[in-house]
Amino acid sequence: MLVASQPQHPMPAGAPPERGRDQGAERGQRSPWSLRLASWCWGVAGFVFVLGPGLAVLLLWMQYRALRRSTDRIASLTELFGLQDTVDLEPYLERVDAFEAWFLQTSGWVLVLLLIAYVVAAAAILAAYLLICTYTLRGANAARVLGTVLAGLSTLIAFVVWQAFATVAWLPLDALAVNHLGLLLMGLHVAGIVFAWLPASNRFAR
Roughly how many angstroms between the first and final C-alpha of the chain, as a whole number? Predict the structure, then answer.
């Protein structure tokens, strides 16, 4: 018994290959480890860059409040043991209270404006970092070049600021500990530049 064979439709010469094979495999290529590390380094650097100033201000405020509580405690002890004639902190505390009241009244709105400006600038800078990281991960040459230029400038700025704060490191301020983040920031930027231009990254970008 003969079975009729279904007609064959030969593929004409020059026809594109089937989708899901060559083109799908090409689209499914995974970014090399070097580009992934470059993207991670620049992404973490962005978070360190925008959180550093806020962390410094927070540490400085916490240290001031701790110092103020210690002063109030000492004043209470001198009053408890009747040592006001030897150690009288009340005049100094009154001056500090007057300064705090004046500062909050005269510059309260300025602090609010500075906080808003900091939040807006931090959001814009972080968005730029994340955008560059995303396109660097995809192998876009423009993102690699822009990321390299910005990372180089940020490294230079971080070095200048780090050197400036290092000259006053002898001051007993906890906020100066944030200066160590400058070393981390410079290291992340430089590492991102190196990883972004390794041979594996160049081959994927081409």
Answer: 58
Residues 6 or more apart whose CB falls under 8 angstroms from that of 26 comprise none
> Using CA atoms, how far apart are residues 144 and 115, in angstroms rounded to an integer?
32
126, 50 Cβ separation under 8 angstroms: yes
Place of tokens 């390794």: 198
Kindly report the three-state secondary structure assignment for every residue of 121-167: HHHHHHHHHHHHHHHHHCCCHHHHHHHHHHHHHHHHHHHHHHHHHHC
pTM of structure:
0.71
Question: Residue 49: exposed, middle, or buried by beta-carbon count in 10 A (0-12, 13-18, 19+)?
Answer: buried
Amino acid at 188: L
- In whole angstroms, what is the distance from residue 134 CA to residue 128 CA? 10
**1-35 pLDDT per residue, tens:** 444 444 444 444 444 444 433 333 344 578 899 99
Burial 138-156 (b: 16+ CB within 10 A, else e): ebeeebbebbbebbeebbe
